[in-house]
Amino acid sequence: MKSRSRFAIALTLAAVLGGWLIWTSIGGSLETYTSPSGLVTTSNGTTYRLNGKVAPGSPANAAERAQTAEGLRFVVVDKEKAAVTVPVVYRGNVPDAFKDGREIVVTGHMENGVFQAERGSLITLCPSKFMEEQAKKGTTMPGGVPGDSAGT
Amino acid sequence: MTLVGRAALLLAFAAALYAVGAALWSRRKGRREFLASAERGVWAVFITTTTAVMVMWWLLLSDRFDVADVAGYSNRTLGWRYKITALWGSQAGSLLLWMWLLSIVAVLVVVTNRRRNRELMPVVVAVLMGVAAFFTSVLSFVTSPFATVSPVPADGRGLNPLLQNLYMESHPPMLYIGYVALSVPFAFAIAALVTRRLDSTWITSVRRWTILSWVFLTIGIVLGSRWAYEELGWGGYWAWDPVENAALMPWLVATAFLHSVMVQERRGMLRIWNMVLVILTFTLALFGTFLTRSGILSSVHAFGESTLGPYFLALIVVILAGSFALLFSRLSLLRSENSLESYISREAIFLYNNLLLVGLAFAVFWGTMFPVLSEAVRGDKITVGQGFFNQVAAPIGLALLFFTGVGPMIPWRKASPRELRRRFGGPLVVAVIAVIPAVYLAQDGAHWWAAAAIVLGAFTLACIISEFWRGMKVRHQSGGTSWPGALGQLFTRNRRRYGGYIVHVGVVSIIVAIACQGAFSSQGDLALRTGQSGEVSGYRFTNEGGTRSKDDHKMSVGVALAVSEGGNRFATLEPGVDVFLAQQQRSSEVAVDSSPFRDVYVVLVGLTPDGLARISVFINPMMMWIWIGGLIMVLGSVVAVWPSRRPREAIVPAPAGADGRVRE
Prior knowledge:
The complex is a heterodimer of chains A (152) and B (664).
Chain A: H1 2-27, E1 30-34, H2 36-40, E2 48-54, H3 62-65, E3 72-77, E4 85-90, E5 103-111, E6 114-117, E7 123-125, H4 129-137
Parallel strand pairs in A: 1-2, 4-6
Antiparallel strand pairs in A: 2-3, 2-5, 3-4, 5-6, 5-7
Chain B: H1 2-25, H2 33-61, H3 68-73, H4 80-85, H5 91-112, H6 121-142, H7 166-181, H8 183-195, H9 201-231, H10 242-267, H11 271-294, H12 309-329, H13 346-378, E1 381-384, H14 386-406, H15 417-442, H16 448-479, H17 483-493, H18 495-520, E2 522-528, E3 533-536, E4 539-550, E5 554-565, E6 568-573, E7 576-580, E8 585-589, E9 591-594, E10 598-607, E11 613-621, H19 624-641
Antiparallel strand pairs in B: 2-11, 3-4, 4-5, 5-6, 5-7, 7-8, 9-10, 10-11
Helix pairs in contact in B: 1-2, 1-6, 2-5, 2-6, 5-6, 5-7, 6-8, 7-9, 8-9, 8-11, 9-10, 9-19, 10-11, 10-13, 11-12, 13-14, 14-16, 14-18, 15-16, 16-17, 16-18, 17-18, 18-19
């Protein structure tokens, strides 16, 4: 009986330690997952994971631009509300799949209406090929002006 | 032809249902002969599913673009090898592959248990065929690989170039074999619960299956990381992506199970715990499929959202609720035969290792599911960054590394202080010596955990070597065998144990390499014209000119870089970029110079017409040891599962009072 209660105490201790570890670790790395329409209303200091599509007119040499001092500038369009866009500045590694119309996720924060992405945080999502085809036929992308990334 | 495929799957569904019914019916008194009939049903499922797979391959190879999955994942110019692997490119096709593997596994179980486990077999067959019925029904009624499209496209869309790669061809089937093989331990566990035959026989029967599935999961995970490293061109190999986590979680719990099984075999303890682990492992394997197929989480691997989520969720809920209800009703039969005598004993160490592995699996689960949970609770989707996973995994990984070394050195039941001093003297000396380079590398504590990994790695390696040494010494002295002969005898007489130690060597290699890569890797970008050179962390790169070529499929650019260190040229790296014209898809061809201490990894970001090459350089220390460690782990587990020629040694229960290891 004694060993059993000791065992219970040890287990509880392990659980508490584990819980504490998870709790303290999770604090520093929380990011709000959102779309461009979720961003604009709440542009405070929080870190976002921005999900949307690359607007037409992103630079063809995106990977090279992302290495220059001024960085890669492109516009992200909301997946649902095609009128909502946000300009993004990004530096670092650009995935091969990055191109107009691709769904992406990028981590960063808002600064003066521009989404400042963290270095190397750009991820592309590969939609299944059928969905890509439907997107081409069905919805037309809003005609974003290339290079016009200053205004919101 | 698509009709043949559909019919085959429907027949497989019917046969699976029949096998479930017949198997359960055979448990009635006087209905024994129905078990043979159910087992023939298993064969029927195997034959019909195989037919469906063959039909699918035939359709892929003969460019039948009226079939949706052929049109979507293949095209005329695709090589035959990729047409074969295009089978698991599509969602329905990957489920078909899963189902086929399950039917193969079920047949193997029937064949190998013709004389053994006859009381368990009815339930085993019923569980396996129940899962098969689920998959065949989904393949028949929800998402069919034989669905057709009209109008028929002139050519298919082809396979994503990123997927046209040896690692990508092989790692999904490896993971699937691992997942599917986990259904065998699960089926036997349920059978043991239902039939109340809860001694260790069921565990002995599934031991090899568990190791086998573990091997394939390991291969799948390592190959997947290798693919990410070589193809994706971001210098890393693991990003805690939901799909990666989905493969890691069952692996972690299966690892825990492989260890706690030994406690049950030797000491009759942890019997409930083992049941829980088996149930959890299988559920996590299904959960992994659910996660990747349901689209509830965004992932680099996004396979496209599908309607399959609810079906898998329902299956998982049924399995969890059913198994745990069954387990609960049998609790009184699962009482532990012994109790823990000391907190410093082999069984206690196994318990710690189990808590750590399951705890890590839970943390990974928590982090992966956090967005879904937070959305349900608070309304906004909060994701967890890689930082969380790294912070949790680092201390747990270090603790696991420590127990990897300590566990096998500590006797069952109880360890005397004198014994411990004698055994750990050598390894401790090694650890103390390793502190010197570790402190030098730690740089004022900034990289303390990499330093800790080095010290613990040296300690654990010393423990493993001293275990081998001790075993060899006993054989050499008592039997008069030569030293190499003694080493050979260790492996032939006790494959599982010494195979396991080899796996541990691989674990040391991987954990130390991960820690060093994480702490000491560096990165830099260079923009170089022909003839110019630049430096990244002591390595000098000189642009020796670019190349351009173009053919029907793709446009390629490349650049030749001379790499030197301290004026000593040691490699020419030629990174490039291919642009596939049909899909307008870029594909970076990274160039890597590997050596035991570091990888020099170069990505060509772009090459302008006037010869300016932009490159990204990653210096990854110890990278090679991740792959070598993976290889060692696989080799070790092959040694552990290899059938021995002699009838398997009976498991010796730990004798009272004495050190149980003497008799091994």
